[in-house]
Amino acid sequence: MSFSDVNKLREELNKTSAVEILTKFFDDGSFCETDALLKSESDFAEAVTGYGTIMGMPVYAFAQNSDVASGAMSKAQAKKIARLYDLAKVTGAPVVGFYDSKGGRLNEKNDLLYAYGEILSKASSISGVVPQIAVVLGTCLSTTALTAAASDFIIMTQDAELSIEVAPKSADACYNAKKGIANFVCENVDEAIEKAKDLVTYFPSNNLESAPIDDAVAPIADASCPVCAMADADSLCFVNEEFTDIVKTAFGRVNGETVGFVETCGDVIDCKAGQKISKFVRFCDAFSIPVVTVVDAKGFSSLKSASRVTAAYAEATTAKVAVIKGEAVGATYIALCGQATGADMRFALENAVISPVNPKALAFIMDEEGMKVPVAEQDAKASEFAQREFSAVNAAVNGYVDDVITQADLRAKVAQALFMLSSKRVETLPKKHGTI
Fold first, then answer.
1. End-to-end alpha carbon distance in the chain
2. What DSSP character marks residue 128?
3. Local structure of 333: helix, strand or coil
């Protein structure tokens, strides 16, 4: 094959949807392809792989090429993707995969199983070492779905399919979002590509580096809620919004630096909310992203959710700042903002309540005479009792919070705490991983 023949092949490949996707994804002119001419049977391999930059940050990416054999997995495709993971491992850069495949080349028989297994092995080996994002743009079923699910975050377009079943009843983006599988759902391909680009900018390249600082974000806070009051303007990226609204999780920036925000919204933390919190905190901890937790919760719905959340916070060695805005009752105080689980700084807003059990139950036990009022007045009486006996000031006097502050002071206090904790170092016992 002559050099002119090679150039003709490149021209043909550059017209495919996969190259178009990766060109849109990377900074202008930065995309460089790897294994560009690798063949699968008599055609191009069914995926395009390469590297480039996002806002100047090195990133590896692959896109399954639906224009070649409908993107079907093959030994050649697996070889290209596996090599990309190897490069990401030795250079410490994120991996973003764009999925659109109708299945696998069945004529390769059991070689296809090895191909899938190799990709899964490579992806698992760098989990927690470099961030991984899967963007599902079309069909992603059966074993291919396993490789997408191995990523830290999954972005889906509205009409995309993701399921371990070959012929699933429910594989659409809405279903997966409600199940907590898809972290983001986008209207179309272009929106999904932009979401992937935006998400990458919140993360460090790997677990030994710091997240990039966004100097362009103006440090102007919106005081409508505690999280908005702390974060830089227009910097919040909410995760798993459709999974449950009992808890909110979001990446944001404080003075240009990435922070993970967790906000409990005044309800009981059930298993779905506990799963949402623990997964988010574990990711932040893996990449040393500070966690700011805004606490207003009446308790846990089950021992399972309590143990899962408590373990995630206790094991996390990243900087942890807690802000109690409402009630921190019993196990929720211990898990989300207690010294026992390693909260580095704990602030309480003026009307916060820190109590070992439900404040109303305590009022009936500790202030029996005072609670002898009509039923319609009992909530108000219990609230008065809680503010008198379990107020934020009382908690601060007894060392259960570091300071009582107003919402107007919240951003400055948290920003200063995060600055002081930026050099935090913690030695842990040697182990492979926790089992909770």
1. 57
2. T
3. helix
Cβ-proximal residues to 110 (8 Å cutoff; 6+ apart), any chain: none
pLDDT in tens, 239-288: 999 999 999 999 999 999 999 999 999 899 999 999 999 999 999 999 99
- Write down the residue that tokens 């305590």 correspond to: 362
Task: Tell me which architecture the domain covering 226-352+391-421 has in CATH.
Answer: Alpha-Beta Complex (3.90)
This model's pTM is above 0.90: yes
- Which residue ranges of the chain lie beneath pLDDT 70? 1-15, 217-222, 359-372, 375-387
**SS3 assignment, position 167:** coil
Question: What are the backbone dihedrals phi and psi of residue 108, each rounded to the nearest 5 degrees, phi first?
Answer: -85, -5
Q: Which residues pair with 132 in a beta bridge?
A: 95
Separation of alpha carbons 51 and 118, rounded Å: 20
Task: Identify the CATH class of 3-200.
Answer: alpha beta
Q: Which residue is associated with the tokens 């798993």? A: 240
DSSP letters of 345-405?
EEEEETT-EEESS-HHHHHHHH-TTTT-S-HHHHHHHHHHHHHHHSBHHHHHHTTSSSEEE
Q: Which residue has the tokens 């806002």?
A: 55
Query: How far apart, in whole angstroms, are the C-alpha atoms of residue 19 and residue 433?
Result: 39
- Residue 435: beta bridge partners? none
Query: Looking at the DSSP assignment, which residues form a beta bridge with residue 403?
Result: 347
How far apart, in whole angstroms, are the C-alpha atoms of residue 298 and residue 294?
A: 13
Residue type, 338: G
DSSP state of 264: E
Domains 3-200 and 226-352+391-421 share a fold: yes
pLDDT of residue 121: 93
Q: Strands of 95-99's sheet, edge to edge?
A: 32-34, 47-54, 57-64, 95-99, 132-136, 153-157, 184-186
Q: Please, how many CA atoms are within 13 Å of residue 316, restricted to the half-sphere of its CB? A: 35
Domain ranges of the chain: 3-200, 226-352+391-421
In 112-256 the beta strands, taken as DSSP E runs, fall at: 132-136, 139-141, 153-157, 161-163, 184-186, 237-239, 247-254
- Listed residue (133, 150, 138) closest to 196, CA to CA: 133
Residue 376 CA to its chain's centroid (Å): 43
Read off the tokens for 42. 């008599």
Cα radius of gyration (the chain):
25
The one-letter amino acid code at 226 reads: P
Cβ within 8 Å of residue 243, ≥6 positions away:
177, 178, 179, 180, 272, 276
